[in-house]
Amino acid sequence: MDETKEISQLRQEILELRETVRALRDTVNQLRREAKKPSTPPVRAVTGIYDTSLGLDKVLEDASWARLINLLNRAETGLTAAELAKRWGRSRSRTSEVLNKLVDEGMLVKYRDGREIRFRPAKK
Of 55 and 114, which is predicted with more confidence? Predict the structure, then answer.
């Protein structure tokens, strides 16, 4: 890969990360507002239900998983665990663990493409 293309891809990844941080910040602010209310109903998000009674760590984990799913939504033919780990910024083993949980929950589909195992969103 030439240096110009690599720099272009890095810039795109930075833009995606900024978008994710912005979305996380909005989600955290919304959850803080919800937590201050006397009764805290679940807040419906694009990829799931965020329940403030679960604690901030669980909410951020769910939002991070939502970013993983968004990365898959952008891929035409699905992605391998190694490709996703690189884009998601986690280890391949942790990424594989999360991907398999999301497959078990029916949010992703796991399939063989030649010698590789790829993942894609279930609703495609």
Answer: 114
